[in-house]
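The pair is listed for reference:
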Amino acid sequence: MIAIDNILVSDEIVQEQFVCDLNKCKGGCCVDGDAGAPLNKDELEKINEVFDAVLPYLPEESKKELQRQGRYVYDKEFGWVTPTIESKICVYGIVDKNGIVKCGIEQAYNDGKVQWKKPISCHLFPIRIQQSRDKQTEYVNYEPREDLCSAACTLGEKLKVPVYVFLKDALTRKYGTEFYATLEVTAEHLKSKS
């Protein structure tokens, strides 16, 4: 583990390699799971803020589910999450002409319609964050899905891109530039020792 203040980062995040290969996985992380994308409490308000701008990007089925379930739902195991359609695709997921599932919120962001990119849990995937019971420590773990992410692991190895480098923007968004710089220096130090 790498300790940066009260954040414990799994060694795998600097040792393993990963680059999403959307042509192979088709954005399956937006479809496959036990619940929708985990949301922190601040993100519930963010969804409310961007909702009207994002709605035109979504297919009719998503709009119907949003009317039925709401903009976010509470799951006993995961807390606040995005709703899903029949426990599969996230209601904010959109499918492009190549059959790749992308985020409707992120598309609105890319088009300059909103200022919020997407839930941080989505941006960080395949990193998952868990808090200690006392909420004083965060555990930052590398958790790719074995089948779904195998192409991303292969592409990461081929391109020699460590997980933390691939997720630089997401890690910086979550923890700040100082945290990322410390992680980068620590990763380089560990690499030079091995």
Notes: The mean pLDDT is 94.
